[in-house]
Amino acid sequence: MKTSQLNHTLTLPCGAVLKNRIGKSAMSENMGSRGYTSNEKFNRLYARWAEGGIGLLITGNVMVDRFALGEAHNVVIEQGIHDANLPLWAAAGKKEGTHIWVQLNHPGKQSPKFLSKEPVAPSAIPLKKPLDRLFNTPRALSEAEILDLIARFAYAAKVCKESGFTGVQIHGAHGYLVSQFLSPTHNQRNDQWGGSLENRMRFVKEVYLAIRQSVGDTFPIGIKLNSADFQKGGFTQEDSMEVVKHLSELGMDLIEISGGTYEAPAMMGAAQKESTKMREAYFLTYCEEVRKRVSCPLMLTGGFRSAEGMNAALASGACDVIGVARSLAIQPDFPNQLLSGAPVTSQVKPLTTGWKFLDKTFPLEIIWYTDQLHLMGEGKEPNTNKSALGSVLGMVYKLGKNAVKKVR
Questions:
Q1: Lowest-pLDDT range of 93-97, 106-110, 394-398
Q2: Could you tell me which residues come within 8 angstroms of residue 97 by beta carbon, excluding any fewer than 6 positions away?
């Protein structure tokens, strides 16, 4: 199949233009400096990806509160933190006419024990076993705290624009705070922020509107949303489609579709049907349905491995941008290869430590691929021969070290 679909430009509702239809989905870099700032490693990594031909780069999650981290070395944008490297990071990502958007996030209850003695969430509901070993039971947010968080997202987006980034993305998927508000499992509030779907989506709606007011009408704002949580009683596909429809009507520029949480990691390809694997994209069927309801550009992420599968998804009209992540962690030139028409296939393959307990307890895929990002941040090439067990043991060492003495 010809790669003409991947080579097409895309004009977003705000007027910004993506040079092609390949987008890098967020992967947390977890390599910030003391003081929660970015550094030259980010510049090297994103310059490498920009040179690889990608149309859109979405950064790893940047937090909006230094006291609510997903990982020890997250970058944070909030009042009181001056990050002189942000303009350099933005400039590196804009090479070759690439767009670079900052993914803004708050982890909610998904903040590890060694970082958050008492994390916050919509409701005081812990994560399920065995994740409760890694995360403390959260405290329910007050309304004043909710309003403060909304303002934090808006402030961070304004700083991103002023620093030269070309857009922002709200992280509303994978069980983080926005996702927690949307889920009836995790949000059991009885005020205006919980209960009905209208109330559960109020937080993300207000975050979007506050960001839009802070950056104006011509600056791209996207969001990453779950197609579903894949948990009994959780955020359903029907709920998700209503949220997508509402955000599209508000003026969202790009909605990225993913799915799952730490408790049910569908975004990693867990328990996919054979028919889904044949089509490559994990959430393509959902995207086909939601396309009937919205005109907003859609980015579909999860499972794409070949130019043929990507072009088929674009040709179907179900999505407008193909999201790739893990492939870029080990093949930074993957976009150029796809756009050239070469018969290239992703080298992503299942990982295991050889120990089922470790595989189940730790987010193995995240840990191993993050190590690949660190190699590129140091100016090195990815190492596909790196041991998965070694990556996990390295993380366990760091967790223990940080638990004894916080590095931040």
A1: 394-398
A2: 19
For the chain, the residue count is 408
68 contacts 107 by C-beta, under 8 angstroms:
yes
Give, in order, the Cα–Cα distances in Å from 121 to each of 141, 142, 188. Answer: 6, 10, 10
- With a CB cutoff of 8 Å and minimum separation 6, the contacts of 40 are 85, 88
- Answer whether 156's CB lies under 8 Å from 78's CB: yes
What lies within 8 Å, CB to CB, of 92 at 6+ separation is 42, 43, 44, 46, 47, 50
Q: CA-based Rg of the chain, rounded to a whole angstrom?
A: 19
The CA distance from 383 to 228, in Å, is: 33
**Residue 245: burial class (beta carbons within 10 Å; 0-12, 13-18, 19+):** middle
Inter-residue contact 283 to 237 (CB < 8 Å): no
pLDDT given at position 267: 45
H or E stretch at 374 = helix 364-377
pLDDT in tens, 30-52: 999 999 999 999 999 999 999 99
